[in-house]
Amino acid sequence: MLGAILGDIVGSPYEFDCNNYKHKDFPLLSARSRFTDDTVMTIAVAQGLLAGQGNPGRTFAEVRETMGLWGEAYPHAGYGGMFRRWLHSEHPHPYGSFGNGSAMRVSAAGWLFDTLEETLEMAKVTAEVTHNHPEGIKGAQATAAAIFLARTGSSKQEIHRYTEKTFGYDLSRTCDEIRPGYRHVETCQQTVPEAITAFLESTGYEDALRNAVSLGGDSDTLACITGGIAEAFYGMPPYLQAETLKRLPEDLRDIYEQFREEAARHAIFSSVK
User: Fold this and answer.
1) Helix 205-214, helix 219-234: angle, nearest 10
2) What's the mean pLDDT in 95-113?
3) Taking the complete model, does pTM exceed 0.70, yes or no?
């Protein structure tokens, strides 16, 4: 999950078409690098999953509550308009979204459960709190499944085949083919396949982030999704772990530490340390 958070931070200066930098030779971190709503909601979902203890109904209620609480705590993190209205609603309900928010916040689900079936079920629950459109659910499930498969020893070829077969995403294009015409789009359909491709073409954790950001578009969310998968596959260099934690406020770090302790209990080939 920390890999997803760093992806958000790394991608944040390059978000939106006007800020996109379609090359890989950018400073990984700078004074402009900051966490956004992607990180806040990643932490919120992690806390909700921990409290839900694998029970779907309880998890739905807990995730809804934690997302609301963290949204209030960090009201200027960069939420989209529909989600902002959901946060301010007295009785928040799912609103049929297929935006990429369901995928960018789901990484904890890939670490906290012992089977792929449980992972898919809990990813679905976290999406349905807001993103109950089939494409919103699919984006969350595909991301969480890739993380689970990566941390349990699957090869890139196996992750590629599973993703295409199970979710119907076209992963045939390379980053070089995606990059020229790719623009800022906030749907799962036009974010999750690209983020997975950025991971599949990478040679290491940092290279995966550079691939994702270099595509352009919704750079922080792309790199958040890619970073979550890449961490599960490669691990995350200790100096980048430390740098990420240094950039988080204490309240967000506290939830991450709770998550880390629980995730370690479910480690198989996991990089959680």
Assistant:
1) 160
2) 98
3) yes
